[in-house]
């Protein structure tokens, strides 16, 4: 833990009110949405400027104190957990939006800007920030960039990476990097901006970002379709992708839907219960788009891929249908699920899921399994719910042993063990299934370049 003199020196850098050592703050800022590790930070600092962040990092270098960055703490891989007496550096007070440029459609955000805050700002300018997910009301832009967050609209708009025009990053030595400066074309050497995106705070602290915005899409409609099996969902994806402009294509299982209906007070989308459901959103600029979607629906029913379905007739109904998918994570959180966030190319999804289903069925008898995910971009979430009576350590051990087989299957299909949740602590033992030995060695060398004292989120992603 930190000594009284160290706490005094920290307070002199950020102000006494921005230094917290009380148990409530330490518990709140020392964890993310995972509940595997008990938070135990030494203290929490909430800087209000880039200069204060630099000062704290330099202090940490001198004192050899490890730093853990904290954004909205909505991560699912324990990347923001401070369990070993680290100093948490939270970006909540750095939440200003400035320098909007209508010509370039860019805006400057401090790291603590909440995703929904940026979305609302864009809408007020008649524009659109398309990266979206269930935690948009709490996740912060800095954390989104540090984990390269994806979400529900990747099929059309890509990942967070695709919307970052510039970055300011404080390295492990306290040096400030100003990367790309909002340029569209810039081939002057290495683009270190992209190295920082997805680095999970292990190379530096993201303190500011210049984000791109997009024109508002046309009116959108949402459909929920019931399918008899996973293979049918892929047929539905192919059929609709050829006929309408998809904004999102999600899926979830009957088990997931049943949990949401029971615990969130929602209604079934239609009377028929099916094994799986596809939720798709598409642009509806005119009546022709809606007609094409209905013709595609009828084709899918005739082909046996869809058993029932519904299309939104209002914004309120569209929002209600989306809740069936977006409320899943919040609903199942009470069971402390073991999450596998896996991906492969869209074409290989059916064969990967067939293999994984066999592994799951053989190894999880009696466990509740919840499937959902962004199947339109090849990303599926496998959630194993912890039985109430089973100790957490036993549950994690059993799931971890089975994950070996799941990740071997992912590797055979050329996929990723972490499609969008990052590596953190939970996925670190399995990194070799997605990255080769040479890649991991170079990653460790890069960390030493940007963080020679080894203080930036140590133990996350890499052991180096």
TrEMBL record:
> Which segments constitute the FAD-binding PCMH-type domain?
37-216
Share an example GO biological-process annotation for this protein.
Answer: respiratory electron transport chain
| Gene3D superfamilies reported for this sequence | 3.30.465.10, 3.30.70.2190, 3.30.70.2740, Uridine Diphospho-n-acetylenolpyruvylglucosamine Reductase, domain 2 (3.30.43.10), Vanillyl-alcohol Oxidase, Chain A, domain 4 (1.10.45.10)
Transmembrane portions of the chain: none
UniProt keyword list: FAD, Flavoprotein, Oxidoreductase
Q: Name one Pfam family in it.
A: FAD-oxidase_C
User: What is the name of this protein?
Assistant: FAD/FMN-containing dehydrogenase
Instruction: Tell me which species this is from.
Output: Congregibacter litoralis KT71
């Amino acid at each position: 833990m930190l000594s009284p003199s160290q706490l005094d020196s920290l307070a002199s850098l950020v102000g006494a009110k921005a230094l917290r050592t009380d148990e409530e703050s330490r518990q709140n800022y020392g964890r993310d949405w995972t509940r595997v590790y008990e938070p135990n930070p030494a203290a929490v600092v909430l800087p209000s400027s880039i200069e204060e962040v630099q000062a704290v990092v330099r202090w940490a270098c001198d004192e050899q104190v490890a730093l853990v960055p904290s954004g909205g703490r909505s991560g699912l891989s324990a990347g923001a957990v401070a369990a070993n007496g680290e100093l948490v550096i939270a970006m909540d007070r750095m939440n200003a939006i400035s320098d909007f440029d209508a010509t370039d459609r860019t805006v400057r955000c401090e790291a603590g800007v909440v995703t929904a805050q940026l979305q609302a700002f864009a809408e007020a300018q008649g524009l659109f920030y398309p990266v979206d997910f269930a935690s948009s009301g709490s996740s912060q832009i800095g954390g989104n960039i540090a984990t390269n967050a994806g979400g529900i609209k990747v099929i059309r708009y890509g990942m967070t990476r695709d919307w970052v025009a510039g970055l300011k990053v404080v390295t492990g030595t306290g040096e400030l990097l100003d990367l790309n400066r909002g340029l569209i074309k810039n081939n002057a050497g290495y683009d270190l901006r992209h190295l920082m995106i997805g680095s999970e705070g292990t190379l530096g602290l993201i303190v500011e970002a210049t984000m791109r915005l997009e024109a508002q899409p046309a009116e959108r409609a949402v459909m929920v379709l019931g399918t008899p099996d996973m293979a049918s969902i892929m047929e539905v994806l192919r059929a609709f992708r050829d006929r309408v402009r998809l904004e999102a294509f999600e899926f979830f299982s009957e088990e997931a839907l049943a949990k949401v209906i029971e615990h969130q007070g929602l209604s079934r989308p239609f009377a028929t219960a099916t094994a799986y459901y596809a939720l798709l959103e598409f642009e509806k600029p005119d009546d022709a788009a809606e007609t094409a979607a209905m013709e595609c629906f009828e084709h899918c029913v005739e082909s046996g891929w869809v058993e029932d379905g519904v299309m939104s007739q209002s914004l309120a109904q569209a929002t209600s249908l989306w809740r069936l998918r977006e409320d899943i994570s919040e609903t199942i959180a009470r069971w402390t699920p073991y999450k596998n966030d896996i991906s492969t190319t869209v074409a290989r999804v059916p064969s990967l899921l067939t293999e994984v289903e066999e592994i799951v069925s053989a190894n999880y008898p009696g466990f509740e399994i919840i499937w959902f995910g962004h199947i339109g971009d090849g990303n599926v979430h496998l959630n194993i719910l912890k039985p109430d009576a089973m100790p957490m350590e036993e549950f994690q051990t059993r799931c971890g042993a089975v994950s070996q087989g799941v990740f071997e299957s992912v590797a055979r299909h050329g996929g990723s063990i972490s499609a969008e949740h990052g590596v953190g602590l939970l996925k670190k033992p399995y990194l070799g299934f997605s990255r080769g030995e040479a890649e991991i060695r170079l990653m460790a060398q890069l960390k030493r370049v940007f963080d020679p004292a080894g203080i930036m989120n140590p133990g996350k992603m890499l052991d180096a």
